[in-house]
Amino acid sequence: MDNILEVKDLTKSFPDFQLGKISLALPRGYVMGFVGPNGSGKTTTIKLIMNLLRRDSGQISIFSLDNRIHEKEVKQRIGFVYDENYFYDTLTLQEMKSIIAPFYRDWDEALFRKYMSEFNLPAKKKIKDLSRGMKMKFSLAIALSHHAEFIIMDEPTSGLDPLFRSELLDILQGELQDEKRGILFSSHITSDPERIADYICFINHGKIVFADTRDNILEKYLLVKGANELLDAASRPLFVNVRESAFGFEGLSDQPGKIRSLLGNRALYEKPRLDDIILHTVRRDRYAAVN
Amino acid sequence: MLQLIKKELILQKKMFIFGLCYSIFLFIVFADPVFRNFTYSMAAFGISYITIVGIAQAEYKNNSDIIINSLPITRREIVAAKYLSIVTCTIIALLFVAVVGLPFSLMPRPFDYRLINGSDVIITVISVFVLASLSLPICFKTGAQWIRVVNVVIFLLIFFAPVQIAEYMVNNPQTPWIRILIDMAGSQTWQLMLMGSVILLIILFISYYISLRIYINKDF
Q1: Are A96 and A195 in a shared domain?
Q2: Contact B3 A103 (CB under 8 A)
Q3: Structural domain boundaries enclosing A28
Q4: Which of A13, A23, B18, B220 allows an S-S link to A52, with CB 3.0 to 4.6 Å?
């Protein structure tokens, strides 16, 4: 399969944080949700992919080209949307566009105007006078207007109200369904990538916990609920994490077959949401770190 | 590269309007015979200074290095464009003051300025290039947070140091290097200008090299 992005054994150290030997791959035509709690290493990874940070070791290939050696060529084909506004806020949208557009050989002015109109963006308004959601839409309009083959979005939905988030996800679903494109979409709100991503990559404490197709991940885990007496030396090792209360337990198991045959109909089984998987995994890691 | 210079011009646009008002103000305030010979270069230097500081602060405020470095362009080109934009900025500032000086040249005393001449251009180029050479590496290193403080110090140095140096030269005419300079100024003007240009270019090149090293190794 043609991978649009390949990251291998990537490391980067800061005084207070380490990104440790992460590897991931995104095939062309797919959307990858890059999820993890705040401070887990999502933005660091994205900045390394964009060559905004210098890596300590490892390899990053985009379109099978090294992202540093072929930086200009690679960036010609990337569209980016960041979590903050890094545009010059005293300029109007039109002025900002006139700065960015000439850098791209495939800039499509008609397409840009189409997005400006669809997103109801006022070309003559200053960037500082736009709401956060409007700024995000402007970033998206820029990212989509030069026929980018790889779209990188770092927390595009964070800080947006639910209505705007939903609208933005609708836009993404509508506009980004292109088999020639690959999309990397980071978020700490797991329900967003879950809605549109084919692949999920979960990062925690600077390490990849899992990276697989969304369906494989959701099938791999099972949410189990039952009375506390069911938790014993045989059942506990089959759980990733268990949350106990006076009324019973809720546990996430990554061995669904074994846990079903062990507990039978004494427990309730549910298909977990991505949120459940991540929550339990983060809690397990925290528990492990404390002990 | 040209796109980056165009970006600087778009950002400079509004600052040039301020610079235009500033140069008119200078032409009125410095009509005194003591200052009037330097009004053109002071105004052009002032406009360049305001523009350089203004752009650096706009970039710092918005952390725009992130956007610029995400575009298909290399860090080497970003640094080179910054230095080239100083040249365009100086040319535009000189054009501005030349145009502002025109109507003044037709006015009665005390506003009857002469037209801009070669020495105004040379003084402006030297002072702006020295300012840029010293402040740009600091700007690339600190991300413009110290740019205003540093530039004020350099600005004052450029304004007051020449007076102190001239006074020292008048009081110590027998010092060997001063004698050489005075001799050259009298008989070998072109050699002196060439030497000055070479020194200026060396300063600029060293500054560019330091900026490049800093920027290439920077994490955003």
Answers
A1: yes
A2: yes
A3: 3-215
A4: B220
Residues of B in contact with A47 (CB under 8 A): 219-220
Which of A215, A242, A269 is the endpoint of a domain? Answer: A215
CB A57 within 8 A of CB B220: no
Q: What pLDDT score was predicted for residue B94?
A: 92
| ipTM at complex level | 0.85
Same domain, A207 and A235: no
A247 and A201 in a common domain = no
Contact B63 A98 (CB under 8 A): no
pTM of the model: 0.84
Q: Print the SS3 string covering A162-196.
A: HHHHHHHHHHHHHHCCCCCCEEEEEECCCHHHHHH
Query: Could you tell me if A211 and A278 lie in one domain?
Result: no
Contact state of A104 with B66 under an 8 Å Cβ cutoff: no
Looking at residue A176, its pLDDT comes to 65
Q: What share of chain B is helix, strand, coil (3-state, %, to 5)?
A: 85, 0, 15
Mean pLDDT across chain A, nearest whole number?
A: 90
CATH code (residue A52): 3.40.50.300
